[in-house]
Each structure stands twice: as C-alpha cells, then as structure tokens.
Amino acid sequence: MTVIHIPGSKSVTARALFLAAAADGTTTLLRPLSSDDTEGFAEGLTRLGHGVTREPDRWHIEGRPDGPAVTEAEVHCRDGATTARFLPTLAAAAPRGTYRFDASAQMRRRPLGPLTEALRALGVDLRHEGAEGHHPLTVRASGVKGGELTLNAGESSQYLTALLMLGPLTAEGLRIHVTELVSAPYVEITLAMMRSFGVDVVREGNTFTVPPGGYRATTYAVEPDASTASYFFAAAALTGREVTVPGLGTGALQGDLRFTDVLRRMGAEVTTTDTGTTVRSTGALSGLTVNMRDISDTMPTLAAVAPFASSPVRIEDVANTRVKECDRLEACARNLRAMGVTVHTGPDWTEIHPGTPRPAEITTFGDHRIVMSFAVAALRVPGVTYDDPGCVRKTFPEFHEVFARFAAEGAG
User: Where among 209, 237, 259 does a domain terminate?
Assistant: First the structure.
C-alpha cells in the first residue's frame, strides 16, 4: 500500500483567506496550500493592506472587519478564479476606497458577469474596463447595505460563495435566491467554513439568508485537496495498486471526494474511515454513464482513464467545464483523439470509447488539471509528454516529483 500526503485544498485555502481577512482578530491557517493560486490570493490581501505572515506549514492573517487598510490598490489576480472573484467582493465591503483588479490573459477570458451584476444590484460601483463581465475591473467601495437579490450560479458556484461570504460584512445581511446552481458541494464547504468563523447561514431550498455581524478569527486546519487526490485514486484503480490518502475521511468537506464513488462503480474497492480514504483495484475497469455536475473538476481525471475501461464511459451534465481554465471537454477530447481514442462530445457531455492509447504530446492549454489527469493515463502509455508541464504550479508545484515517486514504487 502507498500512502500519499496531498497538499491542502485550494478551495478551502481561498475561502479561509477571505474569511480570515474579514474576521475580528488574527487567524492562523494550518497546512494551507502553497501554490501560485493561493500565493496570488495572499499577495492580493497584502496589497489591500492586510497583514499576512507565511511560515512553511501555517499562515497568519490579520483580519480587518472594517475593510482594507488602504483606500487605493491595484491587485493582479494571476490565474486564480477564486482570487479574481473573491477579492473584488471583499473590497466592495470597504467603507471607502478605489480598487483595481486585473488578471492573466487566461483569467481575463473566464466569466464573472453574474457576480458583478449581483454586486451592482446591491449598489456597488463596479466598472469593467474592457469586455463586460470580465477582468480588468475597478471597484469604488462605499460599503454594502445588503438586502435581497436573485442569482444564477449555473456557470460557477463561486459566484454564490463570494456573495455568501460578503453577507456578514453588509449592514443588513443578504437574502439570496438562486435560480440555478452547479457544483453544489462547494457551497456546502462555504457554509461549513462560515460556521467555523462564527456565522450561521440559513438555507431554505435554494434561498440563503446571511445575517450581518461579522466573523471571528480562529485557528483553522486546511484539509487535503480532494480534486488533487483524484489523480492518485484513479492511478490506483488503473494500475491495480492500493493508495491511501490521509486526512480525507468521513468528515471531509469537499464533494470531490465523491469521485471515489465513480471508481467504485467502475470496479475499484473504496474504503473511507475517520482518518482517510483508500482505493484498491485489480486494474480492471468497467464503463459507465455518470452525471458529474457536482464534481466536475474531476471530469478530466475520469476522461483520462476512460479508454482503459471495458466499455464506453459517458460523462454528462458538465457544461460548466467549458469555462474553466480552458474548455476542458474539448481539451480532453482533443488529447484523447491525438492518442488514437474514439471520443464523441456534445454541449455538456462526452463519450469515450475503449481503445489502446498511443503516446502523444498533450496540449495542456495552460490548465493544471489537464496535465495531472493525463499523467494518470501515462502510467499505461509510456512516452506521453506535455507542452506546458509547469502549469501544475497553480495548485501542486511538486506534482511531477510526487507522481514520479508513486510511479517508481509501482514499477519496483
């Protein structure tokens, strides 16, 4: 059995940074993810005037319930969607100030229109410099009164998360009616973490009521990243090995741990305890049809191992993956076809047929999840290369080294 220690969750770290920055007091984050995305978020907080001290296994964040310490700032959000969506929302709650946000070319292409429209509906003076609903943008803050609003979060649950976390910073709180929601488990992460920082949100169906009143600083342990764990779980299922990931047990917050249910349906054996999750397999996988709407970040993981199943794998309800770091449905299809695999796609689905993949250079589109997913396939296809292997720095800078050690243990 191989034990893999996965870095902290990107999603949890980003939420924790927002909540800590808004809390009364100094918060300590234990085992946060240190990657390009989270370091960009921390840098953004520093530019807004928050004190951030980083040690190897813990970060300390000075909260400012009254808003940023500076009244003018320029923040570059790099490639981080959570950074690019959460920080303008945090800045909007400031009593006064002008804050400009820009991002990488990749992030500039990604949408945030439903979020900025919702902020404007709450009275926030927010202006896009170029294409409407995209970076760069400027927030002229004067506090947020709060109230009721309607939100379509069918494109990204991050829109809802940003507004939920904003709620306690408003004068009157927020009541949010959601018409459509994707990746719902990520919202459950947000609600649980807000409770840890002292705020209880009332949910009635798709209506969320957030009270005013602010957050309390705390010491918060960041659990391992379940999306990252999916590559090692899939590798075990594909190669007939056994892998245990500590820290992702029955109490884990992240919905992406449900990817192991997909592997179970394909024939792997999965055991989840209080302390971690283990996947073991003979290496024989069966095909299936699966709805991955709520765990869509693991769609590329499944797509990369699908050709090795005994029958077709059909993945449905993942339209939102077309507006991630790249169009992930198209990226997976293109790379699988380059490997000689038969793939069919539609607006929100893909169907991958069994085959014998051949080596190819993977076109990554600068997307960390494409690299890490096809690294799993490469365990059965020697000679696979990548046009941009370094883009894994977004969430797991040491991925190639860790995965190579895992592969070597199996070969030995």
Answer: 209
- The tokens for 37 are 């995305």
201 & 152 share domain: yes
Contact 304, 355 (CB under 8 A): no
Residue-wise pLDDT tens digits, 97-148: 999 999 999 999 999 999 999 999 999 999 999 999 999 999 999 999 999 9
Are 155 and 257 in a shared domain?
Answer: no
The secondary structure of 48-110 as a DSSP string is TT--EEEETTEEEEE--TT--S-SEEEEE-TT-HHHHHHHHHHHHTSSSEEEEEE--HHHHHS
- Give the residue numbers spanning the domain of 392: 227-411
pTM of model > 0.90: yes
Strand partners of residue 291: 316
Q: Which residues are catalytic?
A: 297
Instruction: Supply 226's token pair.
Output: 């379940």
**HEC string for 108-119:** HHCCCHHHHHHH
Same domain, 25 and 84: yes
* Same domain, residue pair 194 and 263: no
Number of H helices, E strands in the chain: 13, 24
Residue among 260, 261, 268, 304 nearest 286 (CA) = 268
